[in-house]
Structure formats: C-alpha cells, structure tokens
Amino acid sequence: MNKSYSICFISFFFLFLMSMLMFMMMMYFIMNNMVVFLEWELISFNSVSIIMSVLLDWMSLLFMMFVMMISSVVIYYSKSYMSSEMNLNRFIILVLLFVFSMILLIISPNIISILLGWDGLGLVSYCLVIYYQNFKSYNAGMLTALSNRIGDVLILMVIAWMLNYGSWNYIFYLEFMKHDYEMMVISCMIIIAAMTKSAQIPFSSWLPAAMAAPTPVSALVHSSTLVTAGVYLLIRFNMLLEGMFFFKLLLLLSGLTMFMAGISANYEFDLKKIIALSTLSQLGLMMSVLSMGMPDLAFFHLLTHAMFKALLFMCAGVIIHMMSDMQDIRFMGGIGSFIPLTSLCMNISNLALCGIPFLAGFYSKDLLLEMVSMSMLNMFIYFLYYICTGLTMYYTVRLVMYLMVNDYNLLSIYNLFEEDYVMLKSMFILLFMSVVSGSFLSWMIFYDPYMIYLPFNMKMMVIYVSLIGAYFGYLVSKMSIYSVNKFIFTYKLSNFLCVMWFMPNLSTYGVIYFYLKMSQNLLKNIDMGWTEIYSGQGVYNIMKKYSSIYMIFQMNNFKIYLFSFILWMMLLLLMT
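^ thats the sequence. predicted structure below, dont judge the formating
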C-alpha cells in the first residue's frame, strides 16, 4: 500500500509542478503574443519521414495548465477516496494515460496526432467506466465506447479526405481553403465528431451512463478532459466553420441539449447524474456560443466551468462515502451539520455554477448571456438561453435543499464519520480556483474590453430568470415531486422529461432490441440446435455410444470373445 501511496504523491507532485510551468510559459507567450510551432522527426527512412508536430500558443498552454492542475488534485484525492482499492497503481496509471491522451490532443496541429489523442481518450475512458466490474458498468462502458467510436470513424474519414492536400497539418489550410468543397465536407465531419465527444443531441445518452466510473474519474472527465475535447476541437477549427449552414444546425441542437439536460436534472434523484446533466447543460451552452462565432468566450467558459465542476464531483464523492455509498438525494439531508467544510465547498461550487456575482461562473456566464442579447439571433434561441439559465438555478437550489436543508433520511442509528483531510486539502485548491479563476482569466484573456449596451430589462433578465428558477427549486424540494407532476404536467409528459426525451431508448435500448432478438433466435436454432447436433453434442453422443460397445469387448470375458468369433464365422459363411 505504501508503494501505491508513493505513486499517488509522485504523480500529484509532478503534474502540479508541470501545471505551474505551463502557467509561467502561458504568461510569457500571452505578453509577447508568441506562437511556437515545433516539428520533431521521429523516423526517416529513404524518402519517408514521420514527423510529430506540436503547436504551443497561449490557448494550448492555458488549457494544459488547467488539465494538469485538475488531474493532479484528482490523483491526490484518489489517494484517500480509493484507499480500500487493491489495485490503486492500476487506477493511477489509467488516469495518467487519460491525461496524456488529452494533452496530445491539445498540442496537436495535425489531424493524425489528434486522432491518437482522441482515440486514446475513448479507449481509456472505457477502461475507467468499467473499473467497478458489474453489469451496469459494462453496459455504460460499452455505450460510452461505441458513442465515441462514431467520432473516431469520422476523424478517420477526415484523414482520408485530407489526402487531397499536401499534409495533415490542418492548421495551415483553415484560412485560404475555407470555401473549398473538400474542406466543407471535412468541416461537417468535424462538427459531428465533436458532437459525439461532447454528448450533444442525439448522442447525449452516454454522459449520465458514464457515471458508473469512480467519482475521481467523473471529476476529471466532466471538467477538463473527455467531454471538453469536442469543444476544443471546434475552437481550433472555428475559422473554417464560420458561416456554414451546418453550424446553424449545431446552434439549434446544442440549445436543445442545454434545455433537455436542464429539465432532466430536475427530475433526477441520483446525485452524480444530476451533476452529469448539469455538465451536459453547460456543454450545450459552450457549443451554442461556438456556433454563434465566439470561440474565445466558449474557451473562457470551458476553463471556469472546469474548476467548479471538478470540485462539485469531489464533494459528491465525500457525501456518497459518508452515506454508505448511497447516491439517492431523497435519503440525504442536513449534511451541513456532519461535514461542514465539504458542505462549504459544495455550496460555493453550486453558486459558481449558477453564476452568482464574483465567483468563477459569473464572469463567463454573464458575459455569454449579454453577448447573446447583443447578437442578431431569433427570439427562440434568445429565450432558450434564458430559460436554461433559470433551469440551472432551479436544479441547483433543489439539490442544495435536498442535501443541506431537508431532514436526514437514511438510518435512525448511524455512525457518521469525520471529514478526510486528504480529500479536503485537494478540494480547497479547487475552491480557491473556483473563486479566483473567473476574474483572473477575464483580465488576462480579454485585454480589449467588450462594449455591451443593453436596455435595463434586458440587462436584468439574468437576475429575473435566476430568481424565478430559485423559487421553483425551493417549491419542488419542499413538496413531493409526484404532487408537482400532477400539478404541472401529466404523467406521460413528466416521464418523457425524466428520461432525457427517450434518448437512452432511441440510442441504446431501441436500437439493440432487434439485434438481441435475432441473436437469441440464432442461439436457439443454430448454436443450441442443428450445430449442436452435428458438432459438439452429436459427436459426443456417437462417441459415447461406440465407446460403451467397445468397453464390452475390453472386459476380457471369454464368452464374449467366443460369441463374437461364432458371429464372425457365420458372416463369412453367408458372404461366401
């Protein structure tokens, strides 16, 4: 166990130091407006050379700093959270592979090295989702891997289409090949690939299913690695995609994803799934802002969101541990009395998610919504944004009420334990970043201030919808959810809203039913039918029958030998 702990500490220390180094490099690059493009020749054989390209600019360095900081804190947190795990080394190595795949994707200006990182994320995420080996984990892992596989195939097709150009360094072609037919096909494929990784409609069902992974993995996946890969890819390809019709379609789909996730979170009782659906809602926000041609704002929200979402998952992990691995929020309540410091972290990260002023989420969300108000969009998209902001407040207040305010509902005699200081130390690092990172990034990234001029009511719209959402969240947590359903919706409609608009049925259960039925018939009629008779069981029965006859001859009985001799002589006489 000591060896495992030392690997945890070494990984934490190395990644944290690297994140600080990336931060210093990023400051230098942003102050001097620098971009470094490195080419490293791996193999040269006759006229064939394999070259690894690396792009370092302020964006890739800043994102790497966030990924390394969050992963270092998550590994330190795992030291305590996974302390009862026999194979802690294996878990840490998988997490490090995951981080390495993400970093490869971040620094790649080349579509082939992007595929390596992209595919690495998909494969390692499968290993991490099925880490607790049971049927639920296996199903979730398969759904996650196969949904991400669609994106991998599309990126392979992009590689094939880019054979029309001189090399796979896409970064050189974005500007002057913008209106080329091949580039339009490539950009459509890139958008669909990004939608699979960032779980936009119709690929949303894998994101809540991936909650079968250990909580430290959820904290890493939902903040800065797997789900943000699609957003980051679109930020890099943004120059190519502006003005495309498909981008307008992405705006609609991501807006609907945001709306669907916000509503589903209000009907969910699983603590981790509520936070996962909240991530899905924020991803929809990032994608829709990208679709409007504001990549810097989307990147800004991606970074601020990463900090408080990782903290939210880590707090959820402590609560689940304390509740004897219970994840249903109806059994929780009054936990602020038992674990005050974790509750503090939980509440601050929840407030940051809601965009309460001067926390990390406020700087990005407020700016995003005001830029949406300024842009030339239709009313449908405008109201969709504000309704989703109200829904964020709705499910957050509902969650806080269920966890902190309502009565404790688990067991009448229960031995609650103290907070773990290893977990608290890691959470406090993210708590500090959740408070500070928004203002710090807004000063650093946007050195040219945006001029936002709006009427008073449009300016106050965020406050209006937040207050309405908070009030509804309070009402729902005080009343029974079933009475609210009867009061507002019919049963069928609430069922539709509860299961993510039947997305799991459409993408999983509905698709696999016919294949499973067909395979059952094949198993019954072929594997257990004719094949069995003419191969396994049939041959076995024939050999068994003959061996029982041979066994009679091997009993060394004189009467049998005499009888067989007479029989043989009679046969000879008949034949002659």
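Residues 1-182 form one domain.
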